[in-house]
Each structure stands twice: as C-alpha cells, then as structure tokens.
Write a structure and sequence with these properties.
Layout: H1 8-15, H2 19-26, H3 34-46, H4 53-60, E1 65-70, H5 76-91, E2 95-100, H6 105-117, E3 123-125, H7 135-142, E4 147-150, E5 160-164, H8 166-179, E6 185-189, H9 195-210, E7 220-222, H10 227-232, H11 234-239, E8 246-249, H12 252-264, E9 274-276, E10 293-295, H13 298-314, E11 323-326, E12 329-331
Parallel strand pairs: 1-2, 1-3, 3-4, 4-5, 5-11, 6-7, 6-8, 8-9
Antiparallel strand pairs: 10-12
Helix pairs in contact: 1-2, 1-3, 5-13, 8-9
C-alpha cells in the first residue's frame, strides 16, 4: 500500500495551527512570525513534506522559478552570488535556473528567450561585458516579468540593481599603493564597454588626482580578466619608463598572471613593484606573495538581489526600482605591503 503524501494540513494538525498559516509560512509571508516560520519549516522537514509545485502554479499563475544570468558559474565570484540568491529564494519557495552567457551578447539573448519560454517569475542578470544592445532585456519588462541587475548593470533601464562601489574599491587600492611609496602606478583596465571597469578606472584616476598627481595615459594598460592576459602585458609594464613601481589591477586573474610573469623575470614583489588585484578570488590568499585585493561582498550581493526581487513581488502598489550599492573592503596582503 502506497504511503499518502504529506500535505500542509498534516503540518497544521501537528502544530495546532491553520493550513493557511502553514502555507503563508512556507511561502515567506512577512506577516508570519519568525518563531512560527521556523516551527513550520522544522515540521515540514520532519514529515518529509514536498510542496506540489504544479498545483501551486495552476492556482497562482506562478512557476516559482527564477532565472539567473551570469557570465560563468564556475568562477567563485559568481558562484558565491548564486549561492546567496539561492539561499534567500529557497526559503521563499522558489527554485533557481542558472544560465551562463560566457560574456557574449548572443548567448545572453538566447538565455533570455529560453527563460521566457519557461515562464520564470523573474530574471536576475549580470550583463555580459560585451553586450552592446539591450532589446532582449526590454522584452522581459514587456512581458511584465520582474528584471533585476547585479554586478555589471545597464544604467539606462529603470530596474532594480545591486552593485559594489567599484569606484571606491579602486580608489582605496590606489591610495594604498601611494601610501606604500609608489609613484608610477599602472592600472590594468578591463573592457571599457563595461560599467564595472569604467568605474574602476575612474576610481584609480581620482585617487591620483586627490594625491596631487596627474593621470598618465601611458600607465593605463588594457587587460581583460584572464591570467593569460596578465602574463602578456608583463613585458609592456616593465618597458614603461620611468620605471613602474605599483600596479592596481581591475581583476585578480589579470593580477595573478602579471605576478607570475614579473617573478619569472626576476622582479621582486612588492619591493620592486607593489601589486593589488580586485575581487578577492580564493586563490589570492594562497599565491606567494599573497595578493592584496578588493573584496566585493559577493554572498551579500546575492542576498540583497533576491530580497529586492521578493520585495517587488510583494509590493501592494507600483514598485519603484531601487539601486543598492554595497561597500567594498580592501584586503592588504604581502603583495603590496612595503611599510
């Protein structure tokens, strides 16, 4: 004989509350107290409760799924953001569908089309750094589906966004190098089609200006966020005269490649060249010397993005998009610490 499936009525009976209260608690309704929510979730696990998503979808018109677009899920930066989003949305009864764009506009367009066909209840996206057109994002809004940006955003669209203060991160990194005695500081600049890298370049330039120094265009070196790219620009960095004594990189990956190649050429880090990356990738702590970097609060970025989505869904009146800017943290390690 088949065992009957646990329902919200079974949970309600065990806790001596109504089925409606159980339903609201499992769906993250803010009117339910934290104590009740925890009790309901604990009992649901104890009774092996599995919600009937199909029935809920037919009843509410929702699929309880959310699409998340990232350039590459295997990078710890985006993996940590996805984890933050999932942890927050799972508590509210949502599942997450992750799509990778590989920093390509066409892959991004296809991912949006797929998610719309799947009738997701919302889309959260870190915009591809190579995206030049944005009609595919506008199509999401035309469908009446909540759209949110995080990390790399398109500022000309009235949707909620969560970013790190990239300007401030690069500003603090450059000031730190100046405080260490560096006076010829190279900036490894990412793709300037990206708002993220535009802001990091602007922060670097502002720090020099506030220190009473002019920004030298010859010290801004284009370098994408790849280890191989960092290696390739090492010779160019060393050829710059007068001699470079500091590098503020817009990327940890580029900084790692540069670090390896400079060391192979006999350069002492940080004695000859002090180096700071950006992102606080896990490897930065374990290379030698350990890489100074800017932490981007990735898990918190994921939580905040998910909370904005849930706030938009639960809004009783027309939702006004919000832009949340998180504060970065400069992590000083051996690669830049001279004094």
């Amino acid at each position: 004989m088949l065992k009957s499936k646990t329902t919200i009525h079974d949970i309600a009976k065990e806790l001596n509350i109504t089925a409606a209260t159980v339903s609201r608690a499992l769906n993250g309704n803010q009117a339910i107290s934290e104590r009740t929510r925890i009790a309901v979730e604990d009992m649901a696990r104890k009774l092996n409760y599995n919600p009937n998503k199909l029935a809920a979808s037919l009843r509410t018109g929702k699929t309880f799924t959310v699409g998340v677009l990232v350039p590459a899920a295997d990078r710890s930066f985006f993996g940590s953001i996805i984890r933050g989003i999932e942890e927050e949305l799972t508590q509210a009864g949502y599942s997450v569908i992750v799509a990778q764009t590989y920093e390509g506009q066409q892959a991004e367009i296809k991912a949006i089309e797929t998610l719309l066909r799947l009738q997701v209840d919302g889309i959260m996206a870190s915009v591809s750094k190579n995206t030049q057109r944005y009609e595919h994002f506008e199509s999401v809004l035309k469908e009446g589906i909540p759209l949110l940006f995080f990390d790399n955003i398109w500022k000309n669209m009235a949707v909620s966004s969560v970013t790190i203060d990239d300007y401030l991160g690069a500003y603090r990194a450059t000031i730190h190098l100046l405080e260490q005695g560096c006076r010829r500081i190279v900036h490894l600049a990412g793709l300037q089609t990206s708002y993220v890298y535009q802001e990091r370049l602007r922060g670097y330039q502002a720090a020099l200006r506030d220190w009473g120094m002019q920004s030298d265009p010859s010290l801004v070196v284009d370098c994408i966020s790849e280890v191989s790219a960092g290696r390739q620009v090492a010779a160019r960095v060393l050829d710059i005269t007068p001699q470079v004594d500091g590098v503020c990189s817009s990327s940890d990956f580029a900084a790692l490649g540069l670090l390896q190649e400079l060391q192979a050429k006999g350069c002492r880090i940080p004695h000859d060249i002090a180096l700071v990356g950006f992102a606080n990738e896990p490897f930065t702590e374990y290379v030698s010397p350990a890489l100074s970097t800017v932490d981007q609060c990735t898990r918190h970025m994921g939580y905040t993005t998910a909370r904005l989505f849930l706030d938009e869904l639960s809004a009783k009146v027309k939702f006004v998009p919000r832009s949340m800017v998180l504060q970065p943290e400069l992590i000083i390690r051996a690669s830049s610490k001279r004094v």
